């Protein structure tokens, strides 16, 4: 088996260094390590110069931040041009254990019909179930995290993965196509997983471990609506687009109704003085997400970008 890895990075040089080292130390080596630099400004481009003469590495420098969706599309397109059997997909903050590929390889060889697999994601020593989900109700399109009890087995099959340690068979990648770069951020991995479901879904190899070096929320958490920010626009818009592509008309109507409820809640917040500003923002943002999702207006929206 010939394995490759796609790493997308943006302004996290120290994490990227560790991520690359973990890839290099694999007990089953990668044939290709493909790094997509999403126009970082922290010295990442200078650091990556040292790898350009190494035949194992493919370095792709972008002239603008394409978002995770665009970055993974570029990386997987490059992977498709290489002689690879499987491609691992990770961000720069995903630290795979040195035997990650070895653990997956054992399952892949034992079950040759598997089209995609993944490992167990940990943060601060705890399993993060949000990265491995099932569609609990297809009509209502309700997603549910795979329960912790499933991780006590050797493997489990599931529907929806994040790009945190997902590995795809190269021939299946050629069939289902690349991630939607027009999503910019959020839900590109879920929509990609929905395509994989048509070929049998994904198998999680529980013994393959990945340390996701992200910061978990701590202390008192804000309410659901108070947490909504610019990223929420892409999450809701892209979710609607994915449902339109992969689900029934009935499910689309359910999602439309969900939008109406959320927009009504935002409008209600406007009536409360201390929540007026956030309510006004939520109402406009969700309305834009609904209208753009319905019309298929995707890509980066200049109204919803980091400050």
From TrEMBL:
Belongs to the glycosyltransferase 2 family. One of its GO terms (molecular function) is glycosyltransferase activity. It holds the Pfam family Glycos_transf_2. Keywords: Glycosyltransferase, Membrane, Transferase, Transmembrane, Transmembrane helix. The chain crosses the membrane at residues 253-272. This is Glycosyltransferase. Residues 5-143 form the Glycosyltransferase 2-like domain. The lineage of its organism: Bacteria, Bacillati, Bacillota, Clostridia, Lachnospirales. InterPro entries: Glyco_trans_2-like, Nucleotide-diphossugar_trans. Pathway: Cell wall biogenesis; cell wall polysaccharide biosynthesis. Gene3D superfamilies: Spore Coat Polysaccharide Biosynthesis Protein SpsA, Chain A.
């Amino acid at each position: 088996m010939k394995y490759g890895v796609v790493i997308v990075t943006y302004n996290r040089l120290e994490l990227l260094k560790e991520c690359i080292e973990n890839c290099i130390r694999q007990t089953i080596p990668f044939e290709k390590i493909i790094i997509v630099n999403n126009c970082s400004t922290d010295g990442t481009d200078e650091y990556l110069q040292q790898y350009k003469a190494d035949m194992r590495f493919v370095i792709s420098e972008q002239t603008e931040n394409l978002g995770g969706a665009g970055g993974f599309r570029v990386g997987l397109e490059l992977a498709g041009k290489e002689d690879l059997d499987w491609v691992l997909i990770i961000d720069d903050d995903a630290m795979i254990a040195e035997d990650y590929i070895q653990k997956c390889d054992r399952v892949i060889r034992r079950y040759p019909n598997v089209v995609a697999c993944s490992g167990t994601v940990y943060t601060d020593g705890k399993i993060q179930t949000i990265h491995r989900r099932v569609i609990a109700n297809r009509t209502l399109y309700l997603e549910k995290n795979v329960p912790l009890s499933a991780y006590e087995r050797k493997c489990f099959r599931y529907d929806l993965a994040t790009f945190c340690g997902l590995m795809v068979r190269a021939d299946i990648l050629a069939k289902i196509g690349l991630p939607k770069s027009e999503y910019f951020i959020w839900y590109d991995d879920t929509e990609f997983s929905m395509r994989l479901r048509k070929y049998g879904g994904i198998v999680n190899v529980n013994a393959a471990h990945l340390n996701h070096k992200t910061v978990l929320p701590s202390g008192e958490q804000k309410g659901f609506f108070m947490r909504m920010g610019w990223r929420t626009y892409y999450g809701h818009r892209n979710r609607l687009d994915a449902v339109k592509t992969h689900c029934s008309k009935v499910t689309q109507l359910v999602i439309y109704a969900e939008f109406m409820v959320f927009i009504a809640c935002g409008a209600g917040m406007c009536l409360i003085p201390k929540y007026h500003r956030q309510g006004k923002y939520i109402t406009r943002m969700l309305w834009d997400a609904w209208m753009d999702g319905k019309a298929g207006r995707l890509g980066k929206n200049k109204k919803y970008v980091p400050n």
